[in-house]
């Protein structure tokens, strides 16, 4: 526990640095709407201290404390109104709560930092509990300085970490105990089945809540369900029937999606148009310079926002390749299953995330936070992690410095300045590394120790940081 506390404190220091970086764009004075002055729009790009949190104080009804989604909607081509937000509902609720005591964008950033810091510290503590010294790839990660308070992604990251913590600490299956009945010890005897059920419930609830914060954690339900259905080793398949394993996997999937639906249902009933607007906004978002995905650069110079035909083509390709990449990761997981007898849900989940980040039409800088738990929990070579941090920093710094040049009218071509070159390094460097990480994750072993029969056993804290 001392190490967990130390890691949490170190993560706290990283988060303080991250907040200090964003706070450079705050104030020192404010206009009538609560927007920081002077020269806010120039400073956020020039000083690389931009955050979506501070930016969205104006334009989404946040400054007017409008409760999200209930009375809002979407006007084509890209306008949200009446309190609708481009985020899933639980993130919208956190945004609304954080804005209630705020009168300026600086106060809103400060209040928003509280739940985000809690999410970051919780993630660091649980990762330290699971993985020992490797957890410092999260707690001390440069992307945490750049993006912890850039957007609200740490809420979904924490949900994913909680799910991984529960699943990686599952006791071995107990005959008769994992499907609702008492184990061989009889009623009142703690044979591990009750602990197992509780942790499966925790994992399902965490992924469901994660999907209501940011949709991507719902991807991980499929590999976990396959892990449960296919059996956790030969011993599990010997003592539990196929029907029992199917019930376990389907119950897990139903629980996760049920929790997400329960979070969304009140908004769907009270204000369906405002709730649906967030999806309309994302679908209609053009693939442009701000999306930072491979598609804009792969289709240059035809990929300008006003080229409707190319925009439609890119959106189709992004959708098809994203789903194909997700299914490929799931399918390749069966290769290890046939060899080892256990479906590698954690490795497959990490590979699915790589495919999503590579092919999705939007690759915002803060999405790097999504990868950090998998850098900790899977034993991949350190060089891959350092390389990804490097190209990510090139993107995170280069993009905003380029926006500053474009805004001032200074020469900003690829051959005129370093910042557009950094962006290209970031876009294509991330793309190449995501392909490599897709393969590396699928081959990687999880940090927690496995039991003798190949099942995911109780976690042993390890101090291995070499990968």
TrEMBL record:
A GO BP entry is: GPI anchor biosynthetic process
What Gene Ontology cellular-component terms does the record carry? membrane
Keywords (A to Z) from UniProt:
Membrane, Transmembrane, Transmembrane helix
Question: What InterPro entries does its record include?
Answer: PIG-M (IPR007704)
Top-level taxon: Bacteria
Q: Which GO terms describe its molecular function?
A: alpha-1,4-mannosyltransferase activity; GPI mannosyltransferase activity
**Where exactly are the transmembrane stretches of this chain?**
108-132, 144-168, 200-230, 250-276, 314-335, 342-359, 371-391, 398-415, 421-442
Q: Which residues, by range, are in coiled-coil regions?
A: none
The keyword Cell cycle belongs to this UniProt entry's keyword annotation: no
Which Pfam families does the record match to this protein?
Mannosyl_trans
Question: Does the keyword Metal-binding belong to this entry?
Answer: no
The protein's name is DUF2029 domain-containing protein
